[in-house]
Fold:
Amino acid sequence: MEKQQSKDPLHGITLKTILEQLEAHYGFDTLGELIKVKCFNDNPSIKSSLTFLRKTEWARKQVEDLYVKNHKKFTS
Structure:
C-alpha cells in the first residue's frame, strides 16, 4: 500500500528551515518590511528570530504564510 504525500507545504519543514530560506531569498531588510517584527529589523539573526517566533504565534503564522505563498520558489 502506498503512503499518501501530504499536500501541506509546511509538512516536515522546521521553522528554522523556513526562516533560513526566507532570509536567503529576501534578506532581513525585506523580511522586516513584509512582516513588521522587531527581530527582523533590530540586530536580526536566525537565532533571535527563532526564539521570538517560537513564543509568538501571530508572528510565526505570518512567517509561515509568507513561506507557503512563495514555497515553489524554494522547492525548485
